[in-house]
Amino acid sequence: MTEQKAQLEQQLWNIANTLRGKMDADDFRDYILGFIFYKYLSTKMELYANEILQPDQLTFQEIEGHKMEADYMEAIKDAALDKLGYFLEPSELFSELARRGNGGGKHQFILGDLAKVLNHIEQSTMGTESEDDFGNLFEDLDLTSSKLGKSENDKNELIVKVLTHLDEIDFDLENTESDVLGDAYEYLIGQFASGAGKKAGEFYTPQQVSNVLAQLVTLGKDKLKSVYDPTCGSGSLLLRVAKQVKEVSGFYGQEMNPTTYNLCRMNMIMHDVHYKRFDIKNEDTLERPQHIDQRFEAIVANPPFSAKWSASPLFMSDDRFAAYGKLAPSSKADFAFVQHMVHQLDDNGTMAVVLPHGVLFRGAAEGHIRKFLIKDRNYLDAVIGLPANIFYGTSIPTCILVLKKKRSSAPLSDQKILFIDASQHFEKVKTQNMLREEDISKIINTYKLYSNGTFSEAEVDKYSYVATLNEVKENDYNLNIPRYVDTFEEEEPVDLAAVSGELKALDKGIAKIDNIIADFCRQLDIETPF
Fold this sequence. Notes:
single chain, nine-stranded mixed β-sheet, globular
């Protein structure tokens, strides 16, 4: 499986690299990912239609021109809209368009047909339950864009090449146990993200960080009613949580950027998440939350670091913020996201959020909110410091906050908070720092020991510390990790006698060299330089 996955990832990345020519990787991303998605939908459609037609010993391709074509097509369409959420006719399948584009060994013009097909996929869902999940999915796939080529023929030639290359790859969708294609799609998103620098952080959380967040919120659970990400980007975090448990009943997310929102819905469908099981919305989460009346069992997020927001006084009467008495500053929305997530968290839920280090110690309104979460609510469960330069496009050090509404039943004076300093545990890969498997395991195992109440084992010298709420109070609710985890390394004592001996030996060596130089100067009958 791993070999098949690596092979598919390499094939897809090669196509992306070879065919984009002078086009910016970020622009080409929307085309290659869009066409992989179109091929996926086509293959799923054909497999499902063939399954329906099996008792009649027919295939989907064979019903075109059949005397009962209209009846068959109607029945398949109804079934497909319910089961898959969309419908494609045999003539609209990916393989059919790739074949037509390569007709007679020459590139035939198919751009018009392709635009119609992509439009028809969206139209087929109108008025059905899946309309919101498929609406405008292909809007970023602009087949008229000059980026594809100067003339219509140039554009067509590039698109036909992409379709032909993709058509030759077997997506192996008959193998329902395999998520190879979904993972390869995820890999491509990651590759584009690492190449796109600053912009990439907006829609992609590196997999190793997703992995940590996913394990933190699923600890001790094998099923989740719901998982929610208020800044879901391409959906990688939501899907990573699903890999940690046997079953997730519902995926919920909100994403402000329309292109990334489309990418997230495609990513869900590509990972075989049924359209009835996900609800992703395209809106600004802080200003216009779309799931405000729902509560979620697991919440994960990597919000944009220190983003600006309106911090409108009107929010003082919003249930998410009212109890705190203060709003996060308009120049730094970090705590606004935390407050939003706390509001959406179920009583038995866990949330884990990646934030810049500043949230641990900044004062004013942020200090007030931090104190309220710890002293008045006792929601903060753990603070985990991550290495610097671990995210695409920013080198700032970050941390993970883990919050729970129901922590231990011990009296408030006995409540604890776990501090982990994982900032020095990483591997440098090119220009990025990466968490290795052993680094991730160390974080999770430490958190597990702490969660089980074995505090003494959860404390590791220079790595982790279990603080009481009183200690945090004494530090005026400042959570800066070095206040709790002592990472100070004593310097080796200097042996002055040995240093003195070395200096004497150096003096002798210098005198010897001086003599040799003086001798050379005499032989050459020139003055010595000293």
